Each structure stands twice: as structure tokens, then as C-alpha cells.
Description:
Blueprint: E1 2-11, E2 15-24, E3 27-32, E4 42-46, E5 50-54, E6 56-61, H1 81-85, E7 89-94, H2 105-117, E8 121-126, H3 140-146, E9 150-158, H4 168-185, E10 190-195, H5 203-211, E11 219-222, H6 228-239, E12 244-247, H7 252-256, H8 262-271, E13 279-282, E14 288-292, E15 298-303, H9 307-318, H10 323-326, H11 332-337, E16 354-358, E17 364-369, E18 372-376, E19 379-380
Parallel strand pairs: 1-4, 1-5, 6-7, 7-8, 8-9, 9-10, 10-11, 12-13
Antiparallel strand pairs: 1-2, 2-3, 5-16, 14-15, 16-17, 17-18, 18-19
Bound molecules: zinc ion.
Amino acid sequence: MLTLIKNARVYAxxxxxKKDVLIAGGKIIDMKDDxxxxxDQLKVVDGQKQLLLPGFIDSHVHLLGGGGEGGFxxxxxxxxxxxxxxxxVTTVVGCLGTDGLTRSxxxxxxxxxxxxxxxxxxxxxxxxxxxxxxxxxGDIQKDIMMVNEIIGTGEVALSDHRSSQPSLDLFLxxxxxxxxxxxxSGKAGVINVHLGDGKDQMDYLWYLxxxxxxxxKHLLPTHVNRNRSLFFEGIEYAKAGGYIDFTTSTVPQxxxxxxxxxxxxxxxxxxxxxxxxxxxxxxxxxxxxxQFDRQGKLIGLDVGRVYSLYExxxxxxxxxxxxxKAILPVTLNPAQRLKLEQKGRIRIGGDAxxxxxxxxxxxxQSVYAKGQLMFDEGKACVKGHFEKxx
Length: 390
Ligand code: ZN
């Protein structure tokens, strides 16, 4: 089966103008102004009045659910395929979180394999909040080198009352091993760092950047927009050559308390001179969003949503930002951070992870993952194995 999308305006992420895009075998096999072929197994899709974008990449998703900070009944639920695809996301990286005990690496890797079988592309970070890391095979390098799905470590928690309060040395050793596993396997070898509201903020990351030989590209600190002080430190860190990730899931209380919504954070960062390639977004989907009072008592708990990734991009587009800039934090930038050559761009030979959005409203019309139509006309056309019919 061949699919030919005709006359869509392609953002690769750069604006390439109107193109015809031909898909076969899960790949984009041709793209030019006019493709005219005859074939009895050809499906032609009219892309008029639509924008064709790379499928979104979400680099921080609690695929198995997360949380539990309010007791066992507050463990958040596992993620389903259609929640991902209906948000325009075709690549995810799963992580554990606060709870690295009842959620385990074998389950996480199995979930990533399952989602990949169901049509999208899913990876995982090894470990959880806690250092030393509890890995799948007992060794960080071995996990990254020998397990296809594992592309780095995380989310390792720093500057948070829920972190394991690791020493600087232990953190640096973890980074070094992660990097080496990445080098030896041709993978990114990134350390996804959860930053909390703690007073040390990015101290360990600055140390790594300034005092060690580990290249800073291996660090992917997330939740950098969670309070204004951390956010402005993150801007300085990115201007000094680091990379930062903004979380898109939020609740009104967080914003009242000083969280900078991801879309706004990105615009401020650009204004302040942060390089465009330094910022990524991730949803923190299925992670718990616990609200604590000043004494550290849990007073509320919500759950992150993968759809917030799209909503943040939509906000950027509605605010008048160029589409090619608006989609960078969810396409090319995470693909580069995670060293996913086949992802995050529209190019001949790349994976056919494609989003069609309405030119006027930016509403998601169709989502293709590796050439397969996953979401179309407002509903998921491929469901996870145990998802109910529509
Ligand atoms: Zn986190």
C-alpha cells in the first residue's frame, strides 16, 4: 500500500511550501512539487488547506503511570495508545518516577515494546528518581547498550524533597556511565533530570558543565519552567550552552504559585536570547501533579496529559509565532537531543511520522505513525489491544 498526500504545506520543520509526499513501507520515499503515479494500491489523500508536520516527540512520559504521593490509591493509571496518537504524538520516551519500586524497569520496557508493536515508536529511560539507579540488567551501560528501547537514564531527581538526595559524585558517575553507554551503542545516552523546587536548583548541572569533561548535550533537565527562579536560571544555563526542557502539563494552582506555562516560557526564552535549538517540551503525561502546602502536606493530586504538548504548540501558533519555530520543541529539537535520526523532521528516507493539521485552526486532522494512519477525522483508527471501541 502506498499513500500519496497531495498539496499540503510542509513544515519540515522549516516551511518547504506545498508539496506532494509519498509514503511506502513506513517511510517517506519521495517529496516534490508534483508526484504523479499510477498504482492500484495507491491511496491519495487531499492535503489542500492542511499543514503537514513531523509527528510530535514527547521525551518524558510516565507510560506505566506514576505518582502515589498520596498513598496507593493515588497511583496514576497506565497510558493507552490512542491518548498518545490523538495528541499528534508518534514517539514517546517512557520513564518511571517517584515510585521506582512498584513500577519497574521490566514493566516499562515491556510497555514500550507493546506500544511499538501497536504502531508508534516508544523508548525508555532506565532508573527512576533514585540514585544509585535500579536498572534492568544491573548495569547502566549494559541497559543502554543491550536493550533497544533504553536510550538513557532518568528521570533522576535533583533539588527536590522527593529525591534521594544524591551526592554530586554519585550524580556525575551516573552521567559518565550513561554517556559511555550511549557512545558505545550509537545512542543518545541522555540523563533526563527531574528538577524540583529545591534550593540547589541547577547546581549539579552547572558543575557538570563547567568542571567536568562530560559534554553538556547529555543532560536533559526537565520541569525547568516549574517556578520563576528555576526558569530564569534555566535561561542562563541554556545561554551558556545547556539544553532545557519545559513541562506542558500543569494545573491552575501551579501557575498561581509561579510556574511559567511552557508556551510562554519558550517565548520569553527566545526573547532573552536562548538559541532556538536549546528548548524542548515534554508532557510529563500520566505523572502525578501533586500539590503540597508549605509544610509539605499533600493537598491535591492531578494527572499529567499528553494532549498538553499539542495545546502548548497551539498556543504558540495562536500567539502569532512562526509555525516552524512553534513546532521545534516537539519535533527537530527532541529528535536531536535523543539522537533519533529518523524522527522529528519531514525528509525523504525518514520515518513517515506525519501530522496533518487544519491550516486555519491548527486542529489535528490525521496522524500517521511509520506510515500507518492512527488517527483521522477526530477519532483513533487504531486502538490499543485493550482499549474499548468508540
Ligand atoms: Zn519529574
